[in-house]
Design a protein that fits this description.
The termini are close together. α2 crosses α5 and α3 packs across α6. This protein has one domain: Protocatechuate 4,5-dioxygenase, Chain B (3-Layer(aba) Sandwich), CATH 3.40.830. Strands 1-6-2-5 form a 4-stranded mixed beta sheet. The protein contains 6 helices and 6 strands; from the N terminus they run ααββββαβααβα.
């Protein structure tokens, strides 16, 4: 069985994108260079699935949210940059296996879609905590499905167990 092929902790300041920074991104040039290097590394790996755990998506206090429609899209219009937009397919097979594993292990999680989020007056969309890192990935590689997760304050043990379930599902699916 394969292990997870790589993992990265990426910053997500919108100013790092030249269309938003308008020159200010030069102040964080080392960060931009590092993000581009990560994008190239991911392109070399050519993963079928990219898992993003974001601190900026719709967060529930009692469950981890896993975006679960066929696709998810978003843009950076909240930063006056509607031309930076993404529309990516979701890895539904991964989501189903992860959701089932969480249920069996008692890890609070929920598969969310547009109708679920509308009940909470929230939108089903990519957040800037996902778009900014994927901006650097997509410059070099975009043949992947996404698992889009927003974590929750469900306690360190549950978050650890959740991470272990991600690893197990990735191994089962040979990602």
């Amino acid at each position: 069985m394969e292990n997870i092929l790589g993992y990265y902790l990426m910053p997500h300041p919108p100013i790092i994108i030249p269309d938003i920074g308008k020159g200010e991104e030069k102040k964080i040039e080392a960060t931009s260079l590092a993000c581009n290097e990560i994008g190239r590394e991911i392109a070399d790996i050519k993963p079928n699935t990219i898992i993003v755990i974001t601190p900026r998506g719709t967060m529930f206090s009692d469950a981890i949210a896993i975006s679960d429609e066929e696709r998810i899209s978003g843009d950076l219009s909240q930063f006056r940059c509607a031309n930076i937009k993404m529309d990516v397919p979701i890895d539904k097979e991964f989501n189903i296996k992860l959701g089932t594993a969480c249920h069996l292990e008692g890890i609070p999680s929920i598969l969310v879609d547009s109708s679920t989020l509308r009940k909470y007056k929230c939108n089903y969309e990519l957040d800037h905590g996902t778009i900014v890192p994927l901006y650097f990935v997509n410059k070099y590689y975009n043949d992947y499905k996404l698992v889009h997760i927003t974590y929750s304050m469900i306690g360190d043990i549950n978050l650890y167990k959740f991470g272990m379930e991600i690893k197990k599902v990735a191994e089962e699916l040979n990602l």
